[in-house]
Each structure stands twice: as C-alpha cells, then as structure tokens.
Design goal:
single chain, Methylamine Dehydrogenase, Chain H, 21% strand, extended, coiled coil, WD40_rpt, cytoplasm
Length: 920
Amino acid sequence: KGNQKSTKTPSTNSKLSGKRPKSSTSIVSNKASGKQKPGSGKHGKKVDSTSNVESAVGQVPPEDIFPLVLTGATQELFQCRADEDVTQENPFKILRKEEILQDMKTRAAVSDFHPVKQLVLNYPGEELLLVFDRDFSYGQSFYLAGTEEAKERILQAPRTTVQEPTDADVVEEESLLEMPVYKTPEPHPWVSLGSEVEIEEESVKDSKKRLRYRASRIRREFGAQVQFTDRNASASKDGYIECPPYQDKSFCIKQLERDTGTQAIPDLWDSSTQTQWKFPKNTWTQYVPREFTEEEKENCMYSENLRNFITSVALRFEIAVQQNEIMDVFFDDWKALGEEESTFGGKADTHLKEYQSFTDLHFSKQKSISYINWHPTINGVIAVAVTERLCFEDRINLSTKLLLSPSLILFWSFSDPINPQLLLECPDDIYCFEFCPSDPNIIVGGCINGQVVLWDISAYREWVQSSRTGGGGKQTPANHGFEEKQENETPIVRYCAVSAIENGHKAPITDVQWLPDSYEISRAGVPLENKDGVCVQIVTCAPDCSVLFWDIRPPRVAAHSMTDRKQKPEERPLDNPHGVPSTFKHLDLTWKPLIKVAFSKIETSGEYSPLKFSRRDGIHDNKMFEDKSLQNLEKNEGGVNYGMLRVPSAKHLKTLDDVSTQIFVGTEDGELIYTDWKMEKDNDSGKMISSKPSHRFVAHDGPVHTVKRSPFFNDIILSVGGWTFAIWKEGVMSGPILQSSCSKKRCTVGHWSLSRPGVFFIGKEDGNIEVWDLLEKTHEPSQTQNITTASITCIKPWIVSSKQHFLAVSDELGTLHILEIPWTLRRPSSNEKSSMSSYFEREVSHLEYFVKRREFRAKEKKDMEAAEQRKKMEPIIPEKSSEQIEEEVQKGYENYLELEKKILKEMGLLPEEEEKLPDV
C-alpha cells in the first residue's frame, strides 16, 4: 500500500548529480479508491480532456521543491507509508537529517534519497519536510522541501476543502453504473472457415483392405499335451523364412509438418550423388544457391502475408526465446559441485579405504580380537579385547599356561600404530566391555568365566590423552612415576573389582550394557528415579539362560560398616603394591547381582540361552556422549566419586511409569524373543519370578551375534545370526519386516551406520564387509569389499568430524583395521530419514497383508478338508435304474399338465366340462 508505480526518464536520473530536473513525466495509475470513467471528473462531471493531460504530466516544480519516488521498504523505514502514516488530509512528515544520511551511508546508491544527496548535505537545518503528493502535482508521489523558506511556505499554505457531491451528481453517477440487461444469444448457422480440410488431412484412414485369417484345429487334438522336439530348420522346405532387407519403391510417407532452423545468410554446400542401382529413381544436386532479387526482397518484406505471419507467431516466438534463457535461480551450485566431485572417479570412490591398522606381535600374537570400543571423549583412541584362539578342551588342557599370560585390553592410538598406549589386566578373557556414560574412566567387562570386572583409569587419562599427540611436548602423564620408567614401556592397569565366581554367570558373558543415568531399577525390576544422576547399574547376559542386573554402589549394610571403620583413626590402611584404585574396593570378590531374570520357554519346558539383548532406552553409539550425557561428562570431568554413593531405599524413590522394560533377546539357537524384565509374584510359593516371554521368533539358522537398534529409529532393530540377517519393528509381532536370503558365508556381526538411516554393515566369516543401502537396493548389498582373510569378529563405526567417519573392523588373526567411510556412505540425502520411515511403514503394511492372506488360506484349506471329511461320512445313495428314472419323469410331466390346466381355468381360458348325466 502506498507503492506508486512510476517510470523514470533520463531527466529524473540526472538528479544523481544533485541538480534539479527541468521536467519530469510519470504514468499515474488509477487510484485504489475507485475507478473513474473516461471524460468524467471526481464526482462524475465532464471535464476538458486538456486538463486531464496536464494533470497526468504534472506541473513544473519550483526551484526549491524536489520530487521523490520512495519504495515500500523506505516508507516502512521512515514511517511515511502512503495513506497510512501520511494521508491527503495530513501529508507532512518531518525527517531528521542524520537519519537520511545514515540511510544513504548504509544502502549507498540503492537508497531512494541518493538523487538528492547533495541537497541533504547542504541543508542548513536538522529536520527536512517530506510531503505526500497524492494528486501527483509534481509528477511523483512524494516531494522534498529543499530550503527552510519552502518548508515554512508549504506548512503555512491554506488548505482547500473538498466539495461535497450534489444530489444531481449522485443520480448521474448511479445512472452510469447501471448494469446492462442480459440478452440470450440467438443461434446462427455454422460458417466453415476451411478447418475441415485440415482435419481430413490429419485423420488416419485405412487405405487397404484388411486381411482376414482363420485358424482351425482338429477336434480330437483339443486339450492334448504339447510336446516340443528339436529339428533341423534346413531339412524341410518351410523350416524358416528369410527376410532380407530391401527398399520398397512403392513406400511413401507424406511429410505434413517439419521443424527446422533458419539463418539469415545463404548456406553453401559441396555434395555429390551416386545412384544405388536397386531400382531407377531421380536424384539431383543443387550447386548454385538461390537468392531473391532486390525487387523480390522488397515485395516480400512489405507483403501483407508476411505481416500477418509475424503477428501470429510473434508471441510464441517470444515465449520460446524466454524459455531458452530461464534458469532455476534457487539451484544450489555449490551443492551440485560437491555431488559431482563425489561421483567423479566412479566406483572406487564408494569403497571403504584403509586408513590404519593395529597389531602387536607380543600381546596379540596368535590371539583373536573379541570386542572393540572407541574411547568416547578422546578422538583417535580405541580399545580392543584380545582372547586366545582355543577350543574348550584346549583351554582346559592349557589352563596352567594361560595363568602365566593374563588376558588384556589394549588401548591403541593413531599416533603410534606399533605400541599400545595402555593395557588393562583382566582375570580371564574378555568377550565384551563398555565405557561408563557418566564417567569414561570407569570400564566394565564380562569374562569368559562369568565374572564381571570393573576398571578405573582416572590416573591414566592424561597419559592416554597426551599419547595421541605422538609423544610431543605435552606428554605429561598424571602419575609422575612414569617419567622414571623406560620410554617404550606401556603402563598396565589392574582391575579394581571383580565379582565372585559363585555369584556370577555360569557361562561366558556375551553382552554387557550400562543402564542410563535417568533411572535405576529395584529388586523387583521396577524402574525408579535416579537421584544421583549418574549411571550406577549394569546389565549382563550369558548363555546360562539368565540376564543379571548389577549395582556398583555399596549396599546399605556395608555402607554403615565402612563409616564405622572411617571413624577409627588407629586402624592402618592395607598395603596396595599394585596401585589399584580403591573406587570399588567394597565390591571386590563380594559383588552379587541385584536381580536375576530367567527366560523360560513359552510352549515347552526349559529356558532360552541369550547371547545379545537390546533395550528400548539403550544408549546408541552415536548418541552415547551427546546431549545430556555429554553435559554429564563435562560436569563430571574430574570423575564421579562412586565410593561416596549409597543404595537408597526403594520406598523413598518415585516409580517411573514411562520407562519401557521390554527387551529383545537373541539366543544361541537363532531365536529372537521379546520379554519383560519385571518380576512377577508366584501364587503358589509367593516368590518373585521372571515372567515368560510374550513372543518368540525363529528367523536365523545359527546363533544370534548382533541385536542392534537403529540410531535414528528407536523401534527398528537389526539382528544378525547364522547365514541371514533381519530387520524388526517393535510393536509388529507377526515377524520381521525385512529378512535376507541365505548367503554363501555365515554372517558374524552387523552394525548400523551412524550418519545414514538406510545404511548398515554386515561382517562375514570370509573377511568380507557387505554395505547395505536400503534406498538403493533391498535384495542384495550395494557393495561387497574384502578386508581380511580371517573371519570378522566385531564392527564399530565412529564419527570424528563431519568430514571424517571411521569404521573399525577386527578379525580372528588379532588385527584391527581402521577404514575411512567414503562421502557417499556418510552423507545422507535431504529426506533420507523420512524416506526410510515411509519404507518401514510400507513393509509393515505388506507384512500385515501377508499374515492375513496366510490365515485366510489356512482357514480355506481347513474348510476344504472338513468338507471332504463330511462327504466321506455321508451314506452312499444307490444309483437309480432306467425304469425308475423314466417313471419319475412321467410323474413330473403329469404334475405339470395338471398345474397348467388349473391355471387356464382360473384365467377363464379353458371352458368348464359339462357334468355327465347318470346312467339310467
């Protein structure tokens, strides 16, 4: 509102130099207040056309008046919006000189006050007068007073009043605005303009008589089985038909339309012809260009046909020329350039690239890597657990020798691929371990003998962190005693607590996880609020048919005894020759599980043997130390004092109903079960027992090695086992939404991508890595790459930065391979997450349809079997003889005749028979 369209003339542009234009013209549009008819005044009165021209052109402004054109943005900035801030009744606006100068300084030549820059600079006062010119008296919608005299003259000028319209003017205006009376159009005969000839030419008609064919077969061959045999085509006369190419001289296509390009200059061609002697035809060559004479050119240029043609095609020609110049102004050229760079080079750019590898001839010689984990806060540091490659019998026979070489967890740094930076001593081989989300210096692991182990590496954090610099000047370990040791000696950290063998698992621990710091569970498995705000409980599972929950805080009874011991100053502390931290001294060899969850089989007796499990509130790898967990790490940078924590009473804690207690568990027999870890009270004994699983699925033909939730969808689970893998959706209990076919080699491990929702990695026993991209293919991997010659044992991706993603792959030969993920596998598309969500929903609907069809077919088969069974049980009816059949037909015919006679009598079409007289 208030933006008046105007056209600047060269005289208006001359105001850039600060001079006043002599004249200015503008095209004034009709006011928005109402349309006026030509030749009528403000109230409909007729006025002279000469006055209209003068008002449209505008008066010549005085020397001290300067017309201006202000855009909508400038009007908003200076609060002088037309018909809102300034009106015809109050057209004045006082502008401060410094604001105008600031606007010209900010927007430079784009400013609407730039043409009067010199005027504003030379103006003696601090406030200028801007006048809204609604009637365009000086050719523009605004004008500026150039002097103080002009300002006073304009402000003190008498105002004219608007004359009210009379009754005669209103009557005249109403008569002009009367609506015309609608008349029904009269029909007229159709007049041909020659279009039927064009329609006739464009229509397709049959030029030849259609052929008719008839195929017949002998009746006795109907339904006969067809047998195909081999024969020599050249043995019989009609064995094959040769169709040599040839030109048909009778074939002709009439060209009705042609698109061609033309130039304004003659084209010269050098050509020759040679008739190919298949049939006689005329050919020619034009060797002299034809040109119009001057007279012909003049007649053609001024002809009426050419003018009509140009008039008819001018609009289409302009549109075609504009379309050639149109381009997408919102197209992101930088993004497209990056995509082109990513695809340059072809297939090799999509492969995983070897970045670094780690192996040790002393600690990992003839050993296998069982588990790997990236350090959550120190980039470039990764921990690996090495185990002996021995079967059960060999492990028993060599048990004495194994005691002399303790099992270790090695910390590798990218700065030194030869020597490990830190060694964690273990009581036995470790199959799994995890960093604490609240304090990464606390590590928990599961042993092959069923014990749970805790380490505290707080004293070695700076040592590990400084080692990634490659031994630079900042390498100052936390313990100054290391300076006296040899330069290449690696510190060994002894475990600070281990559970008792009789209280732990009776089989190797295959999975261990920390419960999040948002809740803890009671002895009945009920989620309670966690007032400490740190992770204090652990979940472990083993093939001994149980899942155990552990609490790392000292129990309340032990807490009182420890307090009493602290109050006795005369008691001497125990010797600690190994330098083991006393963080979890209260748990060493006395640690017992909080609760035990067993998985009884649903239909038969016995229990399931779990290998891997997944919780709904599990902490994903790429989200582990982000958001709230990252804040806790910063808050607890100095470490968490677990020795001061105590187990609170469950009576004083609030129960959390929004925490899910359902878990997916992969078993040793290839089954996937869905159960609840809450304990139920037995009606007979009154004890708390584990509830039976609610669902059981058989999707794998071997032990399940991986049960991982997607980092982007908390209800999507990837399971890997045997020769197959499957994708599940929590809440859909009819089966997996995607299941792979059996591969040639066994699948050993799998993991989701941390940056792309539709990508995951599958490790094989032959050392290959399969990269699956569900947006590209769902029936086969998008690529397969060989990493090693041995079986792959573990896969762990990690995000270093937005431009560098790593994939850690370990094998049975004790080698750790660090692969760099290419750009195409780490950068998601703009709508990849929504596309994957839609894909999962479609697969769920397909699965529901499949289940319904299977139930329908099973019911249909059951009904058919029941019908056949009933048919067999029915008594056999003997066949009727021909005499009986003929008698039934005759009886039916007589009944029909009687019915016909009865109907005819009722309708009066059959006369009644006279009664017979009695015989005399």
